[in-house]
What we know:
It is built from 5 helices and 11 strands; from the N terminus they run E-H-E-E-E-E-E-H-E-H-E-H-E-E-E-H. By secondary structure, it is of the alpha/beta class. The protein has one domain (2-165): Class I glutamine amidotransferase (GATase) domain (Rossmann fold, 3-Layer(aba) Sandwich), CATH 3.40.50.880.
Amino acid sequence: MKALLIIAPQNFRDEELFHTQEELEKAGVETVIASRSAGTVQGMLGRSAEATLGLRDVDVGDYDAIVFIGGSGSSAYFNNPAALGIAERAAESGKVLAALCIAPSILGNAGLLKGKKVTAYPSERGNLEQKGAEFTGEGVTVDGKIITADGPSSARKFGQAIAKALGA
């Protein structure tokens, strides 16, 4: 099993990346980090991560799960054609598609949440409901192959839910 973790070009939320990644790897899921471009990316709380892929180099077929990590910088992907295209291809291919914090708006803006139960950071509720999603307000919400979470405090449970959906 292999999961692609997509982080913002800057200001991803540290725990959302690292706690999710730790839970996936604990379950035996290989993780790869991507961002707008390959290279070192700074988190909101001072940690950094190495993105080995740029979004334009992502082949969705190489992964079993696509995960959008939140943090204030992830708003850079709300209307980014490459990010929206990755989400669309993942959904079309039946992959596990996950997002937390404000990142579920990427999935909503890609038109993938109509009729789906989702959660997110409270600031995203209006946008998600406008896109046809049913907002739960839970820490983690699973609706089929779409997994969403509300923020940093739910990152470990989010990672565990992704691993479970992958059968890991």
